[in-house]
Specification:
Distance between the termini: 53 Å
Low-confidence stretches: none
Number of strands: 0
Shape: globular
Largest sheet: none
Protein name: Phosphatidic acid phosphatase type 2/haloperoxidase domain-containing protein
Helix content: over 70%
Structural class: mainly alpha
Organism: Dictyobacter aurantiacus
Keywords: Membrane, Transmembrane, Transmembrane helix
Oligomer: single chain
Order of helices and strands: HHHHHHHH
Length: 204
Amino acid sequence: MEKASENRTLQQQLARVVSEISNPLFVALPTFLVIALVTAPDVAHAFLWWIIPILGISVAPFLFIWQGVRKGKLTDHHVSQREQRFVPLFFGLTCMLLSFAGLYALHASPILIATVVAVIVACGISLIVTRYWKISLHLVGMAGAVTVFVLLFGPRWLVLSPLVLLVGWARWQVRAHTVLQAIAGTCLAIFVTIATFHLFGIQL
């Protein structure tokens, strides 16, 4: 019994760690950095193109949520309560649109802009769904990132797919989402990313 209890405790600890580092606001950091470095004409442009979406997609939403938690308006930085998610998502969506405008004005690469558009669309759909059901934003972020890498670098990057399963398990383990909510987030991200790249006419 003690061993079983210890195993469950270890699983919970691992699940919490995975949940923390797979926060979509954090996943965006390396994802956009890689895309910018690969598609920009030089390193200076790459970092400029990286900073703009990071400010709008990661930093500003993170600070908004942090302030909400500090003031007691939000329960935690994962915004675990579905009823509390609309305002942070709407704020994040607004920041993403500003990032898109900045990248467009700077003539950023079509692949980078397409990725930002995919994030905006997925966030917009999640905003609507969240009014009625708690879709997994962690899975939207991770599955979206893996899909972009597969489209950008080829099928061999499907090797990252287990990360999606790991995050899904972690979110289920900490009782943040059901299996169906995790699957819905995954499917949404994959479909929106592929469709957006197709609409942009990006042939990789």
